[in-house]
Amino acid sequence: MAQVPQTFFDALAVRTWCGLALESLGRAREEIDAINVYPVADGDTGTNLYLTVESAVAAVEAVFAAYDVGKPTLADAARAMAHGALIGARGNSGTILAQLLRGMAQVLAAEGETAHTDGSGLRLALRQAADSARQAVAHPVEGTVLTVASAAADAAGGAAHDDCGAVARAAYEGARVALAETPGQLAVLERAGVVDAGGQGLLAVLGALVETFTGEAAAPLVHQVPAVHARVAGGSPGDGTALTSLADAEDCAVVVGAPAFEVIYLLEAEDAAVARLRGRLDALGDSLVIVGGDGLWNVHVHADDAGAAVEAGVEAGRPYRIRITHFGAGDVHTTGAERPPRERAQRAVVAVVPGEGLAGLYSEAGATTVLARPGEPPASGELVQAVRRAHAREVVLLPNDAELRHTAAAAAEQARTEGIRVALIPTRSAVQGIAALAVHEPDRRFDEDVVSMTSAAGATRYAEVAVAERQSWTMAGICQAGDVLGLIDGDVAVIGTDVTATAGTVLDRMLSAGGELVTLVLGDEAPETIAEHLEARVRESYLAVDTVVYRGGRQGALLLIGVE
To answer: What distances in angstroms separate CA 409 from CA 175, 399, 423, 426, 502, one per listed residue?
Structure first.
């Protein structure tokens, strides 16, 4: 069915474009992954682009959901798109795409007498996108997504007509020609017989833009790559197909001794500090891209010393959502020799955790973690990536949040289509996840292990202590902004003014029904003496009840409580 075209750029056009771009990248993801040979042949460009756009879609949908009547402005939707892409950017390609979307948003959301909603505004937005992305990359290389973005902006500037459809189509055609020429600009692409993977992903996004404003699908890329289709079809390196030459090209494409780690984090910092950070990170490694602005940045670099890359961020501001990927000893891009496939583990646990402290605790217990910052829940694609990263035949998935149940279910279903046996335990709090993980035994039969973990989670009552952000009706009455709330099993049970006193009341109510173990997870902003006070309360009033305390870090809630 043809897409009903938008006639000008408004909030609905942003929403439509993001949705179509996600669908397009979903269809093309595997093929884009297959041609990923630059800057590192790690086969994840398509997936990273998909996850980046998925985060943008979630942010735009959240803005629309906030309006009971009417719809958001173009500026609201464009800023949400850019912010979502920024906080969800994955890999080198995703980080650059986030900056491209941010550049467009800077024009679309600009205040002034003339609204940038027509083809002329789209021209300006594409130009700003290409220029800002190039500026964000420490050492721009031709034959990459930057070249394709610049070509799209150049072609849009020469569009014959001033409507959005004509400008979008011109940009797409310019990008399509530029993409087909990338093998002649970058030797690694020519040796592999492929076009640039990031550029291919951008073409999919621009194709969605064409469909948004014309209602018609964009013309496919003419430049076909036999090696890609052989790999996607499942050819083996020894079968004499073009896949063999692609694998060989990957082996010799990257310089021996290339950086061993990919380091990505969000950073809250001032512009001047980020300028100094660029110099620090540029000296540490390569593939440096820093995007963002207005106090929030996404930092991406490949380096041998991952710790130094993170420490540089600490000096510049406050880094969080830190992701460090080790490319792996013996991998093609670190040694120049093909690595034998890593054997899958039999079973793994994947858990969503609300703070860095719990991420460390879960990791020590052997779980693969996904960090969920306050107000930034992970998307289903991020959970699927974590399941793949766990590299196991069987996976137990712990969402640790009632609102992530459907997201986790979608991720589990996707992983099952890839041949992974996944069991979703509907944990509603990280303390329930801790209880489940405590009884996890990978040597047991899968079903028995899942039943035991589910039973432990279900037997754990959970609570949290937080501060009310606004006046609202609750099960315990009306609360005001700044009140301390005690929530038990998801419902507000106590409204107070003192954090420690409220926590004590919550704990008493939970233990009135019995219990043998109390788990306390302290957030960074919890009072320093609260753990000591609550431990003493349990010790003095509840015989034979033990207490364990963990530091959760920046987890949103001041305190998480579990009773089992």
So the answer is: 37, 9, 9, 9, 34
